Batch of 3 targets.
Target 1
Amino acid sequence: MNILIVEDEYLVSQRLSRLICRVSENNHWECNIRQAYSLAEAKRCLSNNPVDALFLDLNLQNDDGFKLLENQPSTLKCIVVSALSERAIEAFDYDVIDFVAKPFVEERIQKAMKKLRESFSLSSCDFLTVDVRGEKQKIPIDEICYIKASGHYSELYCLNDKTYLSEIGLNALSEALGNSILRVHKSYSVPFKQVCKLISQEGSKYLLQLKCDTTIPVSRGKAGLIRDLLKSL
């Protein structure tokens, strides 16, 4: 991975770099780390170098770090590292992988790195790995009925009537799973093969009937897209 740390405090940036390197070495991950100390420097780095992921502070010499995410390709992953924890909910609108609050410890960076690695590898996998009572369990993607946002996590509702919690947020999970998953609502994504029909309700509200005998809400902006997709079946 090519990682860019965007942090205006030199000592914080150096510590974050050391922790990322240590976590990567311990897990036998290869990564190349660059550092930028301002919004302008970060933009130049993104323009001139390959970058797969950002570790982004939000207060960059009084500039808003979120500005860096505007007009960037969807393949660019981002982990926010900031003391402005009140902006964690806002981060969902920018499809960030994780929000790490300052001050941080190595264990928290390790958790963020794990989410980052998983977001890159999901599109080539046939299953998701979840934690069930302290043990790792593989859930086949084909068994997922729909996915619901749960704060920074995602709830996987499966065909066996079981529900699992993934540590990866809905935005990152939906993007990583690619064309096999359809985002139908701010809080819901569904495998396309589970879609049955679109149900119109009063007040311009919509529901999506799934083949697993469940309905989930559909945002008004997604209704037209779903209607067109159903016509093409």
Target 2
Amino acid sequence: MLDFAQFVATLCSSLFAGAAIYISLVEHPARMACDTKTAAQVWAPSYGRATAMQAPLAVIGFIAGVATWLLGGESLWLVGAVLIGLVVPFTFIVVMPTNKRLLDPGRNLASAETRALLQQWGRLHAVRSVLGLLATLVDLGLLLKG
């Protein structure tokens, strides 16, 4: 059971980090190369799809990391779990206000304010990318240490 929990924790953290880093380094910069209205229009469905994938990965990765620690794994498994788990409250507390403003049906999608919100969202999302990467490095390091 310990090996399975370690595998799931590492897999979820790795998949989350890969997706988040892709968004931060590729998708969002490409979106921002478009005019503001287009960027805002494509941000919304991308956000919805990414949320459906990344939120479960963060939660399952957190649970599996905590389970690994509870099953006798090193305390660093708990560190990895907390790092990936922090993505959830960070999203709700810090990122969600920006998301709600971007998703406001009355928003002028071509406005300078919308562009500034998209830029802010990109910086905030980068924090999630870093948290996912750190969790992955901790988990992989522990697996390789074996």
Target 3
Amino acid sequence: MHPQSPVLRALAEKWDAVPAAERANFQSYATEFCAALGVALPQPRGSGYEFEYPVTTTDRRTGKDATNFIDLYHQGRFILEAKHTDAGLGADRVLGAAYGQAKGYAGDVPHAPPPYLMVMNIARTLLVWDRWSGNYGGVNASRRIDLRTLWQRDDDIEFLRTVWNDPDSLNPAIRGRVVTREVAERLAKRSASLEGRGLDGERVARFLMRCVFTMFAEDVGLLQGKPFQTALQAIGGGGGG
């Protein structure tokens, strides 16, 4: 169980029967949610991590400027727009409209568009979009997180904590470079170890290349049942022959 699970569960139980009222509930819930998640709380105006962040939008038809307000803005990290509606088919339509609103704000903020957009149905659902592929994608491209049962899912808890604390670490390009470097370092150490036992260098290289190919074949589904991973786990656990 994740360390934040008990407090997230208590939060879900507290808000489970709260009547829908966006203006009255959002800032209270968001503050409690951040505390339960174990991340920094929103700060005063001008901090770049604040409620009701003002953005100026120019009407394309009239050329006039208007000021809108982002429900919760975290510079360089996310835009969050909130709604509060009862569950049902209408809820998804409301959240879809809020996504369009948040996406528009991403182009209006004076800084670079943040890597994440989020739309929240207060205490019920959180939808998350990223722009790692170059844009945020369509309304159906979101990651859906049930806030009522979030306390049960360690992966979603850690994902959200990372969105708040270090979103760039979730960039697949950066993660891929890190993983590639780590794999290369491990292969180099394994190669040196095998050659140190007197094995021919070319033979070692062919063996390691076959291992890499087999792992790739498992990852993309060419090998069903992950026999190579199972064999490695058995050997590592002392169950191999």
